[in-house]
Write a structure and sequence with these properties.
The protein is mainly α. The chain has one domain. The chain contains 2 helices and no strands.
Length: 98
C-alpha cells in the first residue's frame, strides 16, 4: 500500500474511532446511541468504498496514460529509425556513385 493510501486509511480509522467514542459518551439512551453509531459507521463505510473505487480508477487512468505515451514514443522512434535508414541508404548510394 503506498504512503498516501496508508495515510488516508489511518485518518479514516481515526475518524471512525473518534466518532464511536463520541457517540458512546453522549448522554443518550443505548438504542439511540447504537442507531447513531450504526448510521455513522455506514456513512464511513460508504466513504471508504468510494475512496477505494477512486484510487483504483486513478491507478487505471495512470496506467492507461503511461501505456499510450509508451506506444507513442515507440511509434516516434520507429519513424525516426525509418528516416535514418533512408538517409543512410541515400548516403550509401551517393558514395557508390562517387
Amino acid at each position: 500500500m503506498n504512503k498516501l493510501a496508508s495515510t488516508i486509511t489511518a485518518f479514516l480509522a481515526g475518524t471512525a474511532v473518534g466518532a464511536a467514542v463520541g457517540v458512546l459518551y453522549a448522554p443518550e439512551e443505548g438504542s439511540k446511541t447504537r442507531d447513531k453509531l450504526t448510521y455513522r459507521l455506514s456513512k464511513l463505510k460508504d466513504k471508504i468504498t468510494q475512496l477505494s473505487e477512486d484510487l483504483v480508477q486513478g491507478k487505471e487512468e495512470i496506467t492507461n496514460e503511461a501505456k499510450e505515451r509508451g506506444e507513442q514514443v515507440v511509434g516516434d522512434l520507429e519513424a525516426r529509425v525509418k528516416d535514418l535508414n533512408k538517409e543512410f541508404e541515400d548516403l550509401t548510394k551517393q558514395i557508390r556513385k562517387s
